[in-house]
Model the fold of this input.
Amino acid sequence: MGAAHSIGQSVLNYSKSQRIGIILFFGIVMVLQGIYFFCDFQSSDKKDKAAVTWLANQNAIDSLKLQNKNFKATIYPFNPNFITDFKGYKLGMSVAEIDRLLAYRKQNKFVNSAAEFQAVTKVSDSLLKVISPYFKFPDWVTNKKEFTSTYVKTEFPKKEKLVILDINLATKEDLMKVYGIGDKISDRILEQRTKLGSFVSMEQMQDVWGLSPEVIEKLNTSFVVKSTPNLHKININTASVKELSQFPFFRYALAKEIVIYRTMHSDIKIEDLSKIKGFPVEKIKIIALYLEF
Done:
């Protein structure tokens, strides 16, 4: 008790600055004790151990790299026209070089050789030397010279000049040259021409049974009426009913009507034809060429 009293008395005898220093000292001691109590110093030891292990493995990795120092990434053949940003980066191209190629392709243009690729992208000779062996262009580009040299100009036969014949002088063989006219139809055309002596119009092809509009159109491009050498005419004012009925355009009933009209009105003129009962008015112009008045 006396010792404690003497210590307390001695502390009181310290100056103010000395007392502050003693208080700070005890405060620092308490802070350090708190850090020691709350902090886990073992984790740093664990980290140091992990770092040591990683460094040991890194030495093994470095040794493997030295053993494989000649290893090179495999580059497969590719068409340089379709290099992407990532592909160009892997090949060692700069951003500017890749952009030049992409801008060129946006114009729908293609590079067709290593030299043209360098002219567009401005890549260095050293880089071109490394990547150009892997360029793969389409066959038509690589074999362009071969295709050009083997091309043979084809001589097409000159189109024969179309000869237009007189339908009234045409033979069976002439008619059968027209696509769509065979043996039987050609015989019908010649038979009709024989009955009339001659055709006076190509419109009469419509009266031949079996001729389609398409074939008639082809006939009209190959034949015309140039002459009527054997035209058979019939006198409508003197012919009997029998003679009139044998005319290809008239039937027996119409032949009777013609004779009746002729008897009642005297001679028939061309303008009277449309007045006769049953007369084919739509063919008056053609029929009139076979009649005598």
Observations:
- The mean pLDDT is 82.
- The first strand starts at residue 165 and ends at 166.
- The radius of gyration is 58 Å.
- The longest helix spans residues 41-67.
